[in-house]
Fold these 2 entries.
Entry 1:
Amino acid sequence: MAVYTQVSPDQADALLARLGLGPQQALVPVASGIENTNYFVSTAEGEWVLTVFERLAAEQLPYYLRLMAHLAAHGLPVPAPRPDASGGLVHTLAGKPAALVERLPGAPVDAPDIHHVALLGSVLARMHLAVADFAMHQPNLRGPAWRAEAGQHAQAWLQGAPAELLRAELAFQQTLADAPALAALPQGAVHADLFRDNALFDGAPGQEQLSGVFDFYFAGHDHFIYDLAVVLNDWCIDLDSGALDDARAQALLQAYQAVRPLQGAEQRLLPALRRAAALRFWLSRLDDWHRPRDAQLLTPKDPAHFERVLRHAVDQPWHP
Ligand SMILES: Nc1ncnc2c1ncn2[C@@H]1O[C@H](COP(=O)(O)OP(=O)(O)OP(=O)(O)O)[C@@H](O)[C@H]1O
Ligand SMILES: N[C@@H](CCO)C(=O)O
């Protein structure tokens, strides 16, 4: 169930008219997604995704939508938000903030192979280059301050070996966060949640193209290799063991570095940032598990998966 706000054809048409688009020819609720209400909308001008934001306030949205517009304007496969006559990207529908973005073709890939991760690695590197002149700034809201607080809560839910892993990793990451070597790494606006379900591929099997990446609502300012670590930890992981798959990781990194070669310090710190990324999603999943926002709407994702990813990253660090 992903439609929390019912949008009528008349409401959709009124918004489309404000955005210089013809009336809707089809308005189809999107079943997947848990944060927001999404509809696929067809007009004479093209295909769109209408999002009604259920949690984020209007004043929080410009950073995310401007980042998407910036990346799209730089030729990245990111859906461009449709502006109104005054250039605004945040609209209102049924009293809630809303946005209309281009609909990408294709479908997500659950079990990516070397071909898929290479395409993604190249696009990720291009995104990191393209934000050099992105003027807005927002910290990563799932960064060190959030981690410390979430880590405190999580201590109460864990015992034994997981509790010890968490305690040690929080201490390790705190030391890392204070290190001048980390502060000196290249950084900028990053996606920070580019999992397999936030990218679509289109085309014949074996020859798919990456049609685009979306869901920028955890984006913020962070190190580029943190973003790379988030991606490695999802796209290149053996889902049963939590270990990094060397062939996929090498393919992703090679494609990334063909566009944006990593500095020596980035290569050295990538294993530590993989640990930071695994910890971030272990903590957010623990929080969703133990403090569900709305038990009826949210099926929490398995926290133990990221405990395994973290344990592997600690015990068997992978160096590019
Ligand atoms: N620009 C787009 N083009 C094509 N499909 C899209 C686009 N944006 C979203 N979708 C589709 O809508 C679904 C829900 O989108 P999204 O993942 O942003 O949902 P959400 O509820 O906002 O977030 P979450 O994934 O965190 O639950 C996606 O799985 C995808 O199928
Ligand atoms: N990608 C996240 C959910 C959205 O932040 C996870 O898999 O835990």
Entry 2:
Amino acid sequence: MSGPASAGSGPVTAIGPGIYRIYKSFMFEAAHQLGGLPEGHKCGRLHGHGYTVEVTIASRRLTGPGFVVDFAELDLLKRHLDGEFDHRFLNDVVDVEPTSENLARVLFDWCAAHLALPDGAFVEAVRVRETAASWAEYRQDNP
Ligand SMILES: Nc1nc2c(c(=O)[nH]1)N=C([C@H](O)[C@H](O)COP(=O)(O)OP(=O)(O)OP(=O)(O)O)CN2
Ligand SMILES: [Zn+2]
């Protein structure tokens, strides 16, 4: 199980041989500047993106009315993104180079530490999109 607290109230309403997944996406706007690139690379210049963050929560069981977890539980991530990432210079927000890959890992770890999930549910992946055509994902199998 991931997270500091369990939202595991209510009866288990389904357990199958397969796995259930839910997805929720969030958006924020931010600037960044990437180091470690060849001289003249466009991403070494200050620029911005309209980021999309997609979270995947997985579980072998459903609880309550038939939820992996209530989508509303994931709004904690929206508040975190609004408060800490939106309209910020990402180089000042994270301790790593703010590539999509690194942002996916940072946000995965945040979700695993902060989202309250029912027993058996876990953060499986976080995907960060800089554009509709380019994205990165950090994924971890059932811990
Ligand atoms: N593996 C990664 N490659 C790149 C990343 C990254 O996070 N991971 N990031 C960048 C830059 O942030 C850049 O702004 C985005 O790159 P790119 O998609 O190539 O740029 P455009 O949106 O302008 O797309 P075009 O196809 O060139 O129009 C670079 N690489
Ligand atoms: Zn960029």
